[in-house]
Amino acid sequence: MILEPSIDNLLNKIDSKYAIVITSAKRARELHEEQNYMLDNHRSPKYVGQALEEIMDDKLTVEDYK
């Protein structure tokens, strides 16, 4: 279960839970295939958690994956 970043904090960055899920899933797949990290340090060992961290750090937006 992902505790950080919280869904409330993520909703401040992207206004739809659906958009958060789609964006983070697409980014997680990209991380798995290409290993192109936007952050120097990820706290999460899982790709979805890393994608959510990138959203929180304003490195990833919905527009990146439309």
TrEMBL record:
It comes from Alkalibacillus silvisoli. Keywords: DNA-directed RNA polymerase, Nucleotidyltransferase, Transcription, Transferase. Its EC number is 2.7.7.6. This is DNA-directed RNA polymerase subunit omega. Transmembrane segments: none annotated. Pfam families: RNA_pol_Rpb6 (PF01192). Promotes RNA polymerase assembly. Latches the N- and C-terminal regions of the beta' subunit thereby facilitating its interaction with the beta and alpha subunits. GO terms for cellular component: DNA-directed RNA polymerase complex. It comes from the Bacteria. The RNAP catalytic core consists of 2 alpha, 1 beta, 1 beta' and 1 omega subunit. When a sigma factor is associated with the core the holoenzyme is formed, which can initiate transcription. Belongs to the RNA polymerase subunit omega family. It catalyses: RNA(n) + a ribonucleoside 5'-triphosphate = RNA(n+1) + diphosphate. Coiled coil: none annotated. SMART domains: RNA_pol_Rpb6 (SM01409). InterPro entries: DNA-dir_RNA_pol_omega, Pol_omega/Rpo6/RPB6, RPB6/omega-like_sf.
